[in-house]
Every structure is written in structure tokens, then in C-alpha cells.
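P.,

For your records, the input lines for the assembly:
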Amino acid sequence: AQSVTQLDSQVPVFEEAPVELRCNYSSSVSVYLFWYVQYPNQGLQLLLKYLSGSTLVKSINGFEAEFNKSQTSFHLRKPSVHISDTAEYFCAVNAYNTDKLIFGTGTRLQVFP
Amino acid sequence: KAGVTQTPRYLIKTRGQQVTLSCSPISGHRSVSWYQQTPGQGLQFLFEYFSETQRNKGNFPGRFSGRQFSNSRSEMNVSTLELGDSALYLCASRSLVDAIDSPLHFGNGTRLTVT
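C-alpha cells returned:
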């Protein structure tokens, strides 16, 4: 079975500061990894994904995540956040041998002016 | 292209009642999944349907059930509601169940409050 751990339930940060949202997973088989974002009163949107190849993946709005197999991590980073990045971020894992997506409990990113 | 549509947006029910939630996937998407979202628990997988058949099921009691119609629209039913069923219920669709690089597209959810 797979599981995802997001240790930080909330991350407060000032605008233009860097941020890292942590995600660790557990799986006995290889996995695909995803980050989803949920803005207030909306559903989830795919932010970025790692399927294979380069371990560093990037989104169109400046976020990036790096797959680290040895540390079973897929942390999300942004060098300079905006107020509009305030949202809840979910890490998710999908094992190669299943089509079920397992989500972490989410990290609420609060950006202050 | 219209997104995933969930109705109703809000529901208030009393303990012991039953409720039906509806989800219309993106046109052409044949896979529909349901998730329960609560503070602190994150998203809990309920079930997934593909071509009117349930393919995967989470660890929820039998009070939670679903179905999918021939037009891919899906409904979720919760019977004998309990206070703990209060949550945001999210529906997601994708085009191909076995294409893992086909991402899930979520609706805005139905917020169920049980009093």
C-alpha cells in the first residue's frame, strides 16, 4: 500500500519570500507523483507531476518539485511567492501497479503582504 | 469545453436521512472518481467508476454507494447520514483510466452539512 505524508498543515510566509512545502511518500513499488492546488471554494487543479525522466519538474507559475528516490520525497518549492499563491496544496502518489491516486492531508500556504 | 459539474453546491441534511450527489464529467471522460474532503483528514478516496463499472473502492462503510450511467454521469448516495459525514465531496474525471499521465480534473465539490 502507498501513503503520503505532508508534515506541515500550515505554512505562513511573507510575499516575495521563498517557500518549501514538504511531501514524503511510502511505497513498495515505483510511483508517479503529483502536486495539486486548491484555491478557496474550488476543486483541485493539477500543479505539476513526475512520471519519469528528469527528477526536477516545473509548473507554469514558478513552482517546482524534485523527486528524490533515496529520501522518498517530492518537496514543492517556489523562490518568491505572491499573495495569489495562497491556497491549499496536496501531494499525491500513484503506484505503477494501480490507478488509485492517494492524497496527503494537505498544506495550507498563507502568503502575507 | 465545460469542466466537471457537481450539483448541488451545498446541502444541509439531518441525521438519519439519505442524500444523493450528482457529477457530470468533462465530455469524453469515462472515468469518474469520488473523494471526501475533511479538515485534518485531507482527501479520502471513495470509489472510481469506468464505463458504468466500479473499478476501485476505498475504505468507507456500505452506507456510501455510487453508480455511473451510460453517459458517464455519476451519482453518489449516502444513506443513514451521520454527523461525521459532513464534508466536501469532490468528483473528478479523467479520459483514460489506465493512462496515468491523464490527470484528474476536479469539480468544485458539494458541501454536505449534517445536523
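Two observations worth noting. Chain B has a mean pLDDT of 92. The longest strand of chain B covers residues 42-50.

Regards
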